[in-house]
Amino acid sequence: MDALGVRLNDPGLDDEELDTLAKRLRAELLDLDVEDVVPFHGEGDIPDGAKGIEFTVIGSLLVKLISKVDVAKVVSALKDWLLRQHLHSIEVTVDGDTLKLTNITSEEQDRLVELWVSRHAKPD
Length: 124
What we know:
The chain has helices at about 15-30, 70-85, 105-120; strands at about 5-10, 35-40, 55-65, 90-95, 95-100. It is of the alpha+beta class. The protein has a five-stranded antiparallel beta sheet with strand order 2-3-1-4-5, covered by helices on one side. Helix 1 (about 15-30) packs across helix 2. It starts with a strand and ends with a helix.
């Protein structure tokens, strides 16, 4: 099944604030009728002292999709949520292709979002 990686970005927030926002976003995304939304567990290097312990990348979620059609629905919800939260940005990644949503509405950002979604929201 397909999945989207979501990472909240705001240099002005600490880990606790990002974690709180990620939990709020998770609750909202679960209302979209996706398969699941879980905290993203980091891959790669494990920090010293954390060997054998699964850790979460603060402010990151993995959205498990039922179908590729859900990509557009999730990205639209992320754009709306971002504007309501006044967060700096959200990065969305599918198959190594990352889209950065910012808290600025503009025609160019809308066009870039449309192009990115069209690459990933093809019917199964």
